[in-house]
Amino acid sequence: MYDRSQCYARMIADSEVVKSRSYHYCKFTEALIKRLGTKPRVPGGSPSTLPLLIFGEVADGCEGKFRQREVWATNRQHALNRSYPNRKHGPQNLILELRQREILVATVESGFLQSQLEERKRRLEMAVASEPRNSELGSLLREVDSALDRMAEGTYGLCLECHESVERERLLADPLIRYCLDHLTKSERVALQRDLDLASRVQRNLLPQNGLSAGGWETSYHFAPVGAVSGDYCDLIPYDGQLLFLLGDVSGKGVAASMMMAQLHALFRSLTGMSLPLGQIVAHVNRVLCESAMAGQYATLVCGLAKPTGEVEIHNAGHCPAIVAGRGGVFPVESTGMPLGMFVEAKSSATCVQLESGDTLFLYTDGLSEACNECDEYGVDRVMSLVRQQAAQQPTELIAACIEDLRAFVNGGQSFDDMTLLALRRCD
User: Fold this and answer.
1) Selection from 212, 261, 220, 262 nearest residue 237 by Cα
2) CA R_g for the chain
3) How many helices (H) and strands (E) does the chain have?
4) Domain extents in the chain
5) Comparing C-alpha atoms, which of 99, 94, 1 is closest to residue 51?
6) N or C end of the chain, less CB within 10 A?
7) What's the pTM value of the predicted model, to 2 decimals?
8) C-alpha angle with apex 16: 14 to 20, nearest 5 degrees?
9) Which CATH code for domain 205-426?
């Protein structure tokens, strides 16, 4: 058994190093490449995706998911051992690197928030100078000054009521927040719930038509957020007799993730009408996200262009393997690039497959593959097995069978992550 990854995962969890999925992927990438001295070749994956294959999901910040990460990492650790059997990958050194990088990322985020507050203060001072009788501007300026004072005292980001940490994503979205969710006033809770309900309706209106048929393809999807809003992204865009399909997963949770999901939706919808090759569209979206996303945000994505001839061009940017099921068998389409929003110059290559009448392409977010029961993780292998059994079914029936199998697997267990499923089938 390859238990080194389990050892790493336990120490990471026990030391409370893990705080956010978004930046720990970067930390694992840097730590492993630094330790190996090069980007190793990985069976079934590109060199740039080694950290994602082995450790990228071990460091997810969702509470309650460390155990399933250990199981999943065990199945991936062999890639590192096989590629570099003579190298020593000492857990103590790796954990030290993780801790050092956690300090670095925390410093970057603190600097980002401080710069945001100082810029707001500068603009408010100018506005107050031009409208000295405006009491609302004066009140806002005092709030900004108070936040900067707390930052100087070292108490910024702590709830004024319980002195525990305010939720990181809320703080990044609004640097003036002073209370955690548990200590909002009644009016603040009502306002927050109203905003979440509205955001949920807006997000669901961005979803494509379910049961859409276009370009000789039948489709169906299932969108299941854990909370009011989701960081999962799903879209179907028919154009020029073809069908563009997209499924992604934004780092983090809640409103901040859902806002980036909406940004992805707008970017792809806008760029699709420009008749650019799909690879260029993905590159443009990546560049925009790198320049505009909040610190530490990124999105994994699998997208493709399905043609009436059955040819499908697939781009997988750090996402779960897409699964092709047809007469030639069932096989995964692995990631060939980095998640969007990480590196401006990141590049990925396309995978082209030919599907015949009745063949199916199945996409999903990690809310499916990383669901767990008391003993095990659902896993990509089980997804592939289910798709193999249900390959002859219509997309709607395939997704229904997957949901039923997942429900039986978790046996009433709690879901920790958003889940979205998408199935495409070439018409007979």
Assistant:
1) 212
2) 23
3) 14, 11
4) 4-89, 117-183, 205-426
5) 94
6) N
7) 0.67
8) 135
9) 3.60.40.10
Contacts of 81 (CB under 8 A, 6+ apart): 2, 4
Round to whole Å and give the CA distance between 330 and 126: 63
Between the alpha carbon of residue 214 and those of residues 219, 409, 424, the distances in Å are 9, 34, 10
At 289-317, the pLDDT tens digits run: 988 876 678 999 999 999 999 999 999 99
Which single residue is written with the structure tokens 């492993």? 32
Residues 385-418: tens digit of each pLDDT: 999 999 899 999 999 999 999 999 998 777 778 9
Do the beta carbons of residue 103 and residue 134 sit within 8 Å? no
The amino acid that residue 360 corresponds to is T
Q: State how far the alpha carbon of 2 is from the alpha carbons of 39, 49, 184, 375, in Å.
A: 21, 20, 46, 18
CATH fold group of domain 117-183:
Four Helix Bundle (Hemerythrin (Met), subunit A) (1.20.120)
Length of the chain equals 428
Beta bridge partners of residue 233, listed in sequence order: 248
Q: Which of 203, 234, 207 lies closest to 423, judged by CA?
A: 234
Q: Answer yes or no: are the C-beta atoms of 44 and 83 closer than 8 Å.
A: no
pLDDT, residue 109, reads 61
Cβ burial of 355 (10 Å; 0-12, 13-18, 19+) is buried
Nearest to 331 by CA among 361, 294, 293: 361
- Lowest mean pLDDT across 152-161, 198-207, 382-391, 412-421: 412-421
424, 245 Cβ separation under 8 angstroms: yes
Distance from C-alpha of 246 to C-alpha of 258, rounded to nearest angstrom: 16
pLDDT in tens, 258-285: 888 999 999 999 999 888 999 999 999 9
Q: What is the pLDDT of residues 322-340, one digit of tens each?
A: 999 988 899 999 998 899 9
pLDDT at res. 20: 36
* 306 neighbors 243 (Cβ within 8 angstroms): yes
Amino acid at 414: Q
Return the bridge partners of 45, or none.
42
